[in-house]
Amino acid sequence: xxxxxxxKHPMGDPVILSLDPGVTTGYVIATRAGxxxxxxxxxxxxxLEELIIKWQPxxxxxxAFTLYASKARQMINSSFEAVQVIGVIMYLCEQRKIHVTYxxxxxxxxxxxxxxVSHAIHSEHARSAARHAVVYFRRHRLPKEAP
Length: 147
Fold this sequence. Notes:
Elements: E1 15-20, E2 24-31, E3 38-43, H1 48-55, E4 59-63, H2 81-96, E5 99-103, H3 105-108, H4 115-120, H5 124-139
Parallel strand pairs: 1-4, 4-5
Antiparallel strand pairs: 1-2, 2-3
């Protein structure tokens, strides 16, 4: 599906839903016009399906979970909540035929957010999701002017 024939949010511009999965899942709705009409936090996946229904995103991008050897000891006795959330993301995308992709966490911290976005979003989890949206747009050369 191309962006020109994509699902649209109520204002008419195609959207992506960008997620930072975990016990606190940060999210941002982003348009290719560089707008961020909604952002926030979910507890794990509670409310995720409602966001998808409301915004009908064409793409969902999320921060991947990778267990690095250097961090493995810190994860002893973990329930791997981020992995559980990712499973729900994948399931919902498959059921609704939404294109889903992931990006490594390392990309997230190298990206500066536009000034207005950075000052509007106070949640670090939502900011992480916003940075993933920016990376996604840049990787796919959308919008023509970076948000």
